[in-house]
Branched-chain amino acid ABC transporter substrate-binding protein (Gordonia hankookensis), 410 residues
Amino acid sequence: MHRRVATGALALAMASVLAVSACSSKSSDSGTESGSSGSAAASSGLEIAPLAQIDTQGNEVQGAAESAALNPAGDGQAQCPKTTIAMAGALTGADAALGINIKNGAQLAVDEHNKANPNCQITLKPFDTEGDPQKATQVAPQIANDDAIVGLIGPAFSGETKATGGIFNQAGLVSVTASATNPTLTDNGWKTFFRGLANDDVQGPAVAKYLTGTMGKKKVCVIKDDTDYGVGLAKAMTQSLGSAADASCSGDVKKGDREFSAIISKVTAANPDAIFYSGYYAEAAPLAQQLKTAGSQATFVSGDGANDPQFTAQAGDSAKGAILSCPCGPAPSQFKKDYQAAFNQPPGVYSVEAYDLASILMKGINEGKRTRPELLSFVRSYKGPGLAREYQWSPTGELTSSLIWVYDVK
């Protein structure tokens, strides 16, 4: 996932990527993310702050109330034999921070549950896919064939979900993702897949209309990577932007690229109001740096794949003023305190969703749904509030109500 990089500022960015990979590898062994997102955020001096929650028309909507959310501790009276749920996602590699955010969010919920319920101890078993669909197809059978695992949080990325969804479906294992947003995932006929946040067909129109409406952007360059996530979100954005999407400066990059001179030449020639990058932070950071170096004054905009403190850490001052969207919700105050105390760093993107989804699975287990068919049925009929949003699913596994958050970097 990495290629030759340029010298100067970009070389420093790549060095940061390598440092993140090393820290992530160490943290996956120790069970914490020390040296990753949290410390990176501190060193950048920048904050990804919630700006507004919006609907598909780009209109602002009030966020969920923390006090109404499902508490993983329950009433403290649960009794059950030792039970295991799994988490699958990138715990090492260039995008490891995203997977670790999910693992930590789920682990916080499990720890709170276990502390309150000594007679019902639940184990979270993490599996590292590196965010790679090919690696995920090797990991998925290990999860599916482990009869002790009754539920799965993940997979994390759209590509690996596409590659493994059939395996989990055949095994009858409920799979709740905190982060995979490609819209076509729910078109596969899987009966065990549930998406815990809005898909890109919601995110694209919402962000496009927010950019052209509230922010008044007239010309937007859409650049995408070659992942299932990047392609899907870029398609939704381009269609929703309509005439504001300037085809002369649209472009494609590859996952792992770090040198973007060709697409930057197209962007500077077009002189747009905004640039939307559809991909992950490992590429978004050097792209933002090189655009700034080239003199671009356009607002840098990206989606949930870049909405992580690693983007600000790796892009440095070039990230300032960027707009980042996400179907994920910001961390409420008490959750943020608890997460900081547990992992010595603030929560990251998808941490709240993972906490909510783990809490839902454990509620089912507490209510006696301890086989795969029973827990699957429980999730299918579930309805209730979480920290991030209301959770209820359609027959295809999509949320019945989906909203998007917009964040700014300052």
